[in-house]
Amino acid sequence: MSDTATGQAASEYATLGGGCFWCLDGAYRDVRGITEVVSGYAGGHVPNPSYQQVCGKGTGHAEVVRLRFDPTVISYADILRMFFTLHDPTTKDRQGADVGPQYRSVILAETPEQMETARAVMAEVQQAGIWGAPLVTELVPAAEFWPAEPEHQDYFRRNPWSGYCRAVIAPKVAKFRKGFAGRLSRAEA
Could you list the active site residues? Predict the structure, then answer.
């Protein structure tokens, strides 16, 4: 695929929810081929919700990241394989101490091809027995994506000293960087 106006490869999008969006955001920002990471909300019924509304558990939204990526550099399947290492996809509406439907494990497929790829990767992860329990990850067609407020974008990099970043995000990102060192765009490993 290429953008005929620029001659560059066309971008694709992946929208994923795996608990607090700050964790996914912090990990995916350094992956080669991912050109943009935006934290936000998807899968709900309230237009343009606020963080407070989503945390109130009444909007139906999940905290998600929307990734723009170059499929000639990284495949959607590999993005999903990374996704399944970044959170526990066997706990419904929960990641660690974060509890509620906004923290659910969800893949919002942008195309029928992404839906098919997601099913295949989910089967691969389940068959590998990586988590030792059945996956509860929802696989649904993409829904309206609403970017989160500016203070939620690139949160980990901007707030490395905060308690949540030090206790929760930093260990996840460090493990991710070690496991995918060869896929990083910078020497972060």
Answer: 20
